[in-house]
């Protein structure tokens, strides 16, 4: 079945199962285009999911004047451009998180107890300066070691929302930690 036939059947019958065929056909290309813009795997995955949601909602606007793949590429490109342009702080934040990732923070070679206590206090101070919501989601993930699925169920939100909230909480914690002296 061609892309155009598939789109027509999805629109006519509101068939989400057929949409999964489109997803399989285009997910790799859409993810790669998103990654090209943001240079971050998690963010590219989130953008890809946003694009697929919007594609599903906008399928009826596809008129067949061009190939469907061209329409999807244009849709993806425009979404990514708008995303980057809406977030002027994003580049600064991306540089900060690339240089300072809480999960993979390289500890100094000084393993003395005094040094470790200072780091622990600094992290606790940084945690106290972020919002309760940010602190809670980080505790669910890293203290209670809950899976993303369990966090979804606990908070009653979707997987991409959980991932984005964790990412943002980590960024805020990193900023707070960097400011704590």
UniProtKB/TrEMBL annotation:
It holds the Pfam family Sigma70_r4_2. SUPFAM superfamilies: Sigma2 domain of RNA polymerase sigma factors (SSF88946), Sigma3 and sigma4 domains of RNA polymerase sigma factors (SSF88659). Signal peptide: none annotated. Gene3D superfamilies: 1.10.1740.10, Winged helix-like DNA-binding domain superfamily/Winged helix DNA-binding domain. GO terms for molecular function: DNA binding; sigma factor activity. The keyword Transcription regulation applies. GO terms for biological process: DNA-templated transcription initiation. Keywords: Sigma factor, Transcription, Transcription regulation. Residues 122-173 form the RNA polymerase sigma factor 70 region 4 type domain. InterPro entries: RNA_pol_sigma-70-like, RNA_pol_sigma-70_dom, RNA_pol_sigma70_r2, RNA_pol_sigma70_r4_t2, RNA_pol_sigma_r2, RNA_pol_sigma_r3/r4-like, WH-like_DNA-bd_sf. Residues 22-87 form the RNA polymerase sigma-70 region domain. CDD domains: Sigma70_r4. The keyword Transcription regulation applies. Belongs to the sigma-70 factor family. ECF subfamily. PANTHER family: RNA POLYMERASE ECF-TYPE SIGMA FACTO (PTHR43133), RNA POLYMERASE SIGMA FACTOR (PTHR43133:SF51). This is RNA polymerase sigma-70 factor, ECF subfamily.
